[in-house]
């Protein structure tokens, strides 16, 4: 589908690896003082400064993590950067550099790689990130994309998963479930397209869902917001696999339990409508959908006045003693045990 849309095809073999790297990286510029040497030498050089260095890597594989029949390459490039930046922001750190490694089969022409890097470049510009290196190689089948993000933070600003204490409030940014439902909409359209390629999809009612799936944004703004509010989280994690799964990580590592409230989960109206249409339970989707790339953190209870009413933040519950377990309080007041049924990259589909 994708390749057919592009009439111009330049084979990667014509350029060679160095030609390709030069061709792609000429559009990127360096903007951080800490980047002493970027692309073009045997290794990049960063100024270590007096701060702590924060590093995170992700590997994305075609057919496992993304499907190019509905994921445009530019969006894939953008999203792959977001996934990594999100992990850096979840440490309450600032992201500054990335490296990008790519393996592609000869089914991809140069123009496809340009599209992918256009998305990576847009993300770098928008989030003020330097591309400082990486590798490009051929694969026998499909595409593999690995990105490493490098950030920094003052030692006293870093936030880990293991600092939550009983009575702490559990806070989330943004809303949940939209990216998962966006994927369901795109999957459905793909099936319709297979049956009738003439069929033009009507996606008007799903714009927010599809945008959240194809062009997620990492929460770069939250570290600054928390500074402004004068709140330091006791623990923090980014929500890539659904709220349940991330709460399990926080509670396990902090040796605590938690109580969250069904009626406090922030949902977009499009999520509620799509759940009705797909006959899905919106709470389950919010808790287990995944790919929201929002942040979940805990704050001491005396920060309540600073957090409440902020349009970016929702208080969804509180931390309890470990022996209380992980509980969801339903709208009807019933207590049910939370299960970590987050999206699992290794599970059989
Ligand atoms: Mg993470």
Could you describe the 3D structure shown?
This is Thiamine-monophosphate kinase. By secondary structure, this protein is an alpha+beta fold. It folds into 2 domains: 2-157, 2-Layer Sandwich (60s Ribosomal Protein L30, Chain: A); 169-337, Phosphoribosyl-aminoimidazole Synthetase, Chain A, domain 2, CATH 3.90.650.10. Helices cover 35% and strands 23% of the residues. The protein contains 11 helices and 13 strands. A hairpin with a 7-residue loop joins strand 1 and strand 2 (45-46). The protein is globular. It starts with a helix and ends in a 12-residue tail after the last strand. Residues 342-349 have low confidence and may be disordered. The structure holds magnesium ion. Magnesium ion is lined by residues 87, 90, 237-238, 240.
Kindly summarize this structure in a few lines:
This protein is of the alpha+beta class and 349 residues long.
Strand arrangement within the widest β-sheet reads 8-10-7-11-9-12-13
Portion in strands: 15-25%
Structural class: alpha+beta
Per DSSP, the total helix count is 11
* Number of E-type strands: 13
Which range best describes the helical content: under 10%, 10-25%, 25-40%, 40-55%, 55-70% or over 70%? 25-40%
Largest sheet: 7 strands, mixed
Parts with pLDDT < 50 across at least 5 consecutive residues: 342-349
CA-based gyration radius: 21 Å
The CATH topology of the largest domain corresponds to Phosphoribosyl-aminoimidazole Synthetase, Chain A, domain 2
